Amino acid sequence: MPEGTLSGLQSFMSSGGLLIILMIAMFALMIIPQRKREKKIKDMLAAIKVGDRVRTIGGIYGTVSAVRDDIITLTVGPDKVRLVFARGAISNVENVAVEATMDDGVADVK
User: Of 61, 69, 65, whose CA–CA distance to 50 is shortest?
Assistant: First the structure.
């Protein structure tokens, strides 16, 4: 290896090249997974349909009874109360019906 190449590499590393490489690595480790999470959430919200059981960001569990643009109507509890939420207020699509575990307004914890 020519001596000029080695000193050029040392010069690059000492002049902030290592700092630039570390910043790029931090970007890759922090931003890319966040974008994947955001895409997954966006896809989940776009796929919500009538009959899905969901949880809101406030912790309310219900069944989707209507979807219109960015407005979602949920049926909640044994009395079938209807609540209206923005699509972004949906936290998760659940697999288990919470309403089915309700007896006299109190959830059975098993």
Answer: 65
